[in-house]
Queue: 2 jobs
Job 1
Amino acid sequence: MMRYVRDPALWLTTLVVLVAGVWPLITRSATTREDMFLILMFVTLASSLNIVLGYTGYVNFGHIVFFGLGGYIGFYLIAEKGWHVIPAALAASLGVVLFAAILGGIILRLRGAYFALATIGVNEAVRSFIVNWDAVGGAVGMEMNFSRYQDYGGPMNALWFAYILLLIVTLASVLLSYFVRTSKFGLGLLAIREDEDAALVLGIPAPKAKTIAFALSAIFPAIVGTLFFFKNGNIEPGDAFRLHMSVEGIVMIMLGGYGTVMGPVVGAATYERLRGFLLTSPLFKNLQLAFAGVLLLLIIIFVPSGVVGWLRNRFPKVRRILA
Amino acid sequence: MDVLLASLVDGLLIGFVYGLAAMGLTLIFGVMDVVNLSHGALIALGMFGVYLLFTGLGLNPYLGLLIVLVLGIILGMILYAIAIHPLLDGPHLSTLLSTFAVSMIIIGVGTMLFTSTPRNIDINLGSMVLGPVRLQGTRVVAALVAILVATGLYIFMYRTHVGKSIRAVANNRDAAELVGIPSVRILAFSFGLGTMLAMVSGGLIATLFPFSILSGGTYELKSFVICVLGGLGNPTGALLGGLILGLIEGLIPVFMPVGWTPVIEFTLFVLIILIRPSGILGAR
Amino acid sequence: MKGMRLFVTVLFILALIVTGCSKATPTPAPQPTKAEAAPAQQQAPEAKAKTLVLGFTASQTGKYAKESKEQTQGIQLWLKDLEKKGGLKLSDGTVVNFKVKYYDDESTKERVQQLYTKLITEDGADLLISPYSSGLTAAAAVIAEQYGKIMITTGAASDSIYKQGYKRVYQIYTPASRYLTGAVDALKAWDPNAKKVAVVYEKSKFATGVAKAVKAYAEKQGLEVVLFEGYEAGTTDFNPFINKIEAAKPDAIIGGGHFQDGSTFAKQLYEKKTPVKMVAILVAPAVPEFAELGDAAVGVIGPSQWESIAKYSPESAKAAGLTWCGPTIEEFVSGYKEAYGYEPGYHAAGGYAAGLVLERAIKMADSTDPDAITKALDAMDVMIFFGHIKFDTGEAHGLQIGHDMVYLQWQKKDGKVVREIVWPEAAKTADAIYPLER
C-alpha cells in the first residue's frame, strides 16, 4: 500500500484529472462544462481502451461497442423503466462487462489482424442487430420524456449531476489504468504484448489474463454511454455504435503515448482541443480532416511512442513521476 | 421461384465486382501483412477518377477505367513509400493507423473539392430479358470487366517474372531477397496493384450506383467480409468470397426482411474468422 | 528535492494541456465561424432600440452540409429583409433588431449540445432556431428547453420531439406522420381500383417514422399493405429487394429515405422496369439534382414541404379565412435568386419561414418578453409564403398542424425533365402521369 501512496506518478495522474475536471464546477460555467464533458468522456474511453490496446497489445476497433451497449441498457432502464441514473449506469456496466467477458473468451483466441477485423465485425453485427430490434426502438431509437429530469431537481441540475458522475468515472478509469499498469497482473499483460508465446512459457495464464483485461476495459465505457445518452435525451444506433469513434480513441492513445497511464489522458485532451481549433480556424476549416490525417501520419512515423512516451524516453528522470 | 432465380443472377453479377474490390485488400495483406484501412477511400477515389474523366473530358467510363488503372498503380507505389515502408517492421498498429491516416487525407481533401453531394454517372446500356430474369446492361458489363481484370491478374501472378517474384516475397521475404529479388521494389509494386484493384472496382461501381466521396466505407466493410470468407491473403478466394457475398445479399431478402442482411453478414464474418480463419476455401 | 521541482513543473504543464488553458482562451473550441452581426444601425435617438440575439448551429461540415447551407441562407435572407425594413417596430416605439450567431456543428450530436449551451450561456441568445435534421434537433431541443428558450425548428420533421413534454419548441415543417399520407389520398383519387401498396423505407429515424404512419393510414383507407420492410441505411444495391417487391405485385410503391438511397432506388426501379403504377418516395425527388437521373426520374412522385410554384398567396389566405404575412412567394424567390444566384428549395424556404414566424410572434406579442412570445406562438394561425402555420397546443405541444405537403412529379416536357405539382388538386400545376408508363 505504502508503495502506492509514495508514488508521485499516482498523485500526478489523479491531480491532473481532478484539477481539470473540477474547473467547471468552480467557475459554474455551463459552456466549460460542455467542453469538459466531451474531453472527460474521451479520456475515459481512451484510458480503458489502452488496457487492451496499450498494455496487452491487441488492436480493438470495437471498443465503442461497450459504450453503445452500455448506453442502450442504461437509457432503456432510465427512459422506459424509470430507474435512477446511478443504478441504471451500474446495471449497464455489469451487463456489458459480462458481455465482454464472454466475447473476450471467444475472440481473444485470434491474434494480430484477425482480432482487429473480428472486433470491427462485432461492432457492425451488434449495431445492425439493434437497428432491427424494435423493443429498443429499432432504427428510430428511444427518447426520454423531458419530465424525467425533474427527479434530479430540474434539467439544469441533472446536467451538472451527470457531469459530476462522469468526473468520478473518469478518475476511476484512470486509476484503474494506473493500478493495472503497476500490478503484477499488468506486468503479465505487458509480457503478452511483447511475446505471447514466451509469456505462456513463463507461466502467465495468457488466455485468462487477456479476457480479464478485456472485461476491465468494458466497465467504464458502459457507464459513460449511459451518462452521455442520459444527457442527450435520446439514443439512436448510429450515434451509439459509431466505428469512427473507436478509431478516434486509438488515435488519441497514439498521440499521447501507447501503453502509458498518462498517455491517453494527454492524448484525448490534446486531440479534442486540436479538433476544436482546426474546425474554427479559417485556414484549416475545410481541410481539418486531411490536416489531422497528416498529423497522425507524422506522429506514427516520427514519434511512434506519443507525447508521454517521448518524454519518458528523452528524459529518463521523468519516468518516476510520469507513468 | 422466379424471384429466386432473378435474385441469384443479380447476386452473382454484383458479386464479381465486390470480389474484385476485395482482391486488392487481400493481395496487400497476403504480400506484406498489412490491413489497408485506406481501401475504402481508394475505392471512392476510383469512382471520382472515372466520374471526372466522364464529365470533364467526356471519356467513356470504360475507357476511363484504363486511365484509372494506370494512375492507381502509380498512386499505390507513392503511398507505399510514404505510409507503409517506414513502418513495415513495427507493430501491426502502426500500419493500421498510417493507412487510416491516408484515408483521412483522401477523404478530407476529397470533401473539400467535391463536397459530399452524391454523384451519378449517367449511362444506360439498356437491359435484356432472359426468361424470368431482367439483366441490366451496365451490370453485365461490370461483371465482365471484373472477370477480365481478375483473369489478367491471375495470368500476371503466375506467368510473368514480376508476378512470380511477388509470390516469392509473399512467401518469405528474406529468402526472396537471398535469391536476388529486389523485395522493396516488389512490395511497392504489390501495393500499387492492390491500390489499382481498389480504384478500378470503384470505377466500376460508379457506373452502377450513385456515390459520394464518403461511399467507400460501405465497400471497405464488404471487402473485409469477403476477404475473410475467401481467406485473408488469397486473391482467388476473394473472388469466390465476392460471389458468396453477392449471393447472400441476393437471397436473404427472399426469405426474411431485407434489414437483417447486415446482421447475418457480420455474424457470419465473425464466426468464420473464429472457426476457419483461413477462409472457407481453407487454402494454406 | 530535485525530483519534487520536476514533479511540480510537469504537473503544471500537464494541467495546462488538459484544461487547454481554460482561463486564457475561454473556449478555444467553438469560435464563431461567421458572426453575421446585424449592423447596429444608430436609431433615431428618440426610438428605443433593442437587439435580440438569435442563435443556431449550421452543419457546415459532415453529412448534412448541403441542406444546412440552404437553411442558413434562408435565415440570413430573412434577416437582411428585416434590416431593409429598418427592424421590427413595436407599438411603444421600440425597434427590435436581431443579431445572428451560429457555429458549425459538424452534423454531430455531441457538438450540437455543446454549442447550444454556449449560444445560450455565453452569447446570450434570446431566441433559437434548430439545426438541420431531426436527430440534431432532438439533441438541441433538450438544451433549449432546459434554459427555457424558445426554439423554432425547421428542417426537422420527426414527431417524437413534440411528445417529450417540451413547452417552447415549435415546428415549421409538416411532421413525419403526415409526410406521405397525401400520396395515399392521391392514389385513391386517381385510381379507385388500386388496392395494394408496398411500403419500403430506409431504416433511419425519420423514414421509419414516415413509413409507420403511411402504413397505418393506408390500412385505414382500405388499402392492403402487401410489403412493409426497411432497408439498411447506405444500401446501394436494391436489385434483390426490387425482386421481392415485384413478387408482391403492388400497385404502388411508397417509401424511401434520403437523397442518395432514394435516387438509387428510383434508378434501379426504372432499369428493372418494375411494373407498378405509382412510385412515391421521400426527399430525393424534391432535390433538384434528382433530374440527373434523366428518364429514370420521369413519373416519380415526391412530397415537398414547399415549392416555388406553389399557390399560397394573400388571396388564398383570404379564401381560407387566414391572415397573410410576410413576402409573397415571388418576392421570396426573386430575393433569394438575387442574393445567392439560384432558385431556393424548401430547405431555404424553411429557414426563411422560421425567422418570419419569430418576427410575426414578436409583432403579435408586441413585446420581447419570452412568455409573451410563447403565448403569441401558441395562438398563431397565419398564412405565409411557406403555407399555413399553426401549432398544436395540446399533448404534442409545438407540433405543426397547419402546414401541408405538396406532391410533385417529375415529368418530361420538350425533352427536358421538369417538376410539376400534381397533388393536392387545389395546388396542382399539371395533371399527374398515372399509371407509370414503363
Note: The interface with chain C takes residues 2-3, 6-7, 10-11, 14, 111, 115-118, 120, 122, 124, 127, 134, 136, 138-139, 205, 208-212, 214-215, 218, 249-254, 257-259, 261-262 of chain B (CB under 8 Å).
Job 2
Amino acid sequence: MSAILLIAVPLLTAFVSILFKKYSHYMLIAVSFLSVFALGYMDLETITIGGFDAPFGIVLILDNYSLIGLYLVNILFFIVAVLNCKEYKKLSSILLVSLAGLNGLLLTGDLFNLFVFLEVAGIAAYLITTTNKKPLATFNYLVQGTLGSSLYLLGLILLYAMFGTLNMSDMAREIGTSGYGAGVTALPFLLMFIGFGVEAKLLPFNSWAKGILASSNSLSGPMIASVYAAAISLVFGRLLTNVFVIEGTLLTIVMGILVFSLVAGEAMAFSSKKVKEILLYSSVSQAALVVLVFMTGFAGWAVYLIIGNATAKLVLFLVTNIAAKQLGDDEVDTFKGLFTNNKVVGLAFTAVTLSVVGLPFFFGFVTKMNILENMFLSGAYVWPALILITSFIEGIYFIRLLLNLWHTDGDSPEVKFDFVLKYVVVVIAVLTMIFGVYTKPVQDSADDLVVYSITEGGNF
Amino acid sequence: MLQYAAIAMLMLGLYGLLTQRNVIKIIVSLNIFEIGLNLFIISVGYVDDGIAPILTSNFNNNGLIFVDPLPSALVLTAIVIGVGTTALALALANNIYQKYGTFEIDEMGEE
C-alpha cells in the first residue's frame, strides 16, 4: 500500500464529510482507525509523486523514523478522536484535514512541501483551538503561527537561492559539498529554526501556548499538547539531524535558547498554581529537552523521549481537562483530593506523571537514563548536569501536585470519568510500566533507529 | 533592486505586527509581510533579460535565458495559503468583535 493514501484519504474524506454532515464523525473514526491499521501494510520506500524523480519532484519518505512517528501520531489521534467525536461533531471535517496535514508533515521529503503541510496542519490547529471559546488567544496563535511559518519560508527561499534545490537529502548533500562554512547558511537556518520554534513551543517564541493550553478542553488540550507536539518535534528532529548544519557561534546561540527554554519552563511550572499551567510549562521544557537531545546527536533516544512525552501528556491533559470542566476551574486547591474518589484514574495519572519525572520502573526513566549515559560517554558534562537539575525541579512540583491530588482534609470533589477514558488511561499507564521494566526491545531498537540516510531518501 | 523593495516590505509588515494593537491592523500587517515575502521569492527567480520558461516547437529558444519558473510556482501556493489564513483571521476578528465589542486589544480587559 502506498503511503500517499495516508494523506489523500483523510483529505478526500474531509471534503466528502462536508456533504454528509450527519455522518461526518463516523467518517472521522473510520478513517483515523483505518490509517492506524493501514500502517501495518506499508512497505518502507521512497515515493516519487507525479513521475518526477528526486530531486526535481516531491518525494514522500517512509523509513523507520517516519513510520514510528506515523504510528505514534495516528494512534494518539485516533484516541483523541474517539473520546471527543460525540461532543465536537462539528469539527470532524477539520480533524480529518489535520490528520492529513500531520501525516504529510511526517512523510514529506521536500522542504517546500513541508511548509505547505505545516500550514495545513496549522490552520486545522487554529480551528481546533476555537473550541476553547477564547478568540483572542486563538488569534494570537494564528498570527504567531503564520509569522513563524512565513519566516520558515523565507529561510527556505534563501537556501533555494544558494543551492538550487528543495529536496531535503539533496539539500544536505549540496550543503556538504559546497564548502561554504556555517556562517553562510546561518541566516536561513536561524530563520527556519525560529519558524519551527514557534510551533514546537520553544521559549522566546511560544507566548501563544499559555492562552491556548491554559483554557483548553478535552479536544484541544490533548490535540495540541500531545499529537501536534509529537509531530512537530519529530519533523524538527529530522531537519536538525539531516539538513541543518549548525556550528560555531550559531550553535552557541541555539543551545542558549534551548537551555533558557528548558530552565525557564521548569521554573514557571514550579511557580504555577493551576494544574493546566503546570502541565503546559512542563511541556514547554520537555519540547526544549527533545530538541536539545536531537542537537547533541542522540536521535533514537530523542524519538523515545517524544513517545514518552506525547503519551504522558495525552493522559495528563485528558484527565485534567475533564476534571476541570466538571469542577469549573483548574486551581490546584479545587482539585485537592480528586483521586480519593477515582482511584483507578488516579493510579494511572500517578504512574504517567512519575514516568515524565523519570523515576525507575517507568518508561521515562529508561529514556532519560540512556540519554544521560550517552551524553556522559560522549564527554559533554554540561548537558547531563542541566538535565538532572531540571528533572529534580520537575520531580518536586509534580510530586507536590500528586500529593495535593491524593490528599485532602475536607471533602473531596466528585468527578465522573467515563469508561472509555478509564480504559485508555489505564492501558497507557500499564504500557509505561511494562516498558519501564522490560527494557530490552527499547534498548535494541534505539540504536537501529538512525535517521534516514541520504541514499535512501534521495532516490537518485 | 526588487529584492530591496521586498525586504523593505517585509520589514514594514514586521514593524506593523510589533507595534499595532488593533486586530484588523495586525491582519493587514500580516498581509503586507506575506506580500513582501512573495515578492522576495519572485525576485529570487528573476533573471535580467530572461524570457518566460515555455518550450515551444515552432520557435527555437534554446540559446536564450529563461527566468526560473519554480519560485513562481511556490508563490502561487504561498498566496493561496496566505488567503486561507487571512480569511480565518478575519473570521476570528469577527468573533473577537462579537465577544468584546471592540477591535482594540488594549480595551478588551484581558491578556
Note: Chain B has one domain: 2-50+69-104.
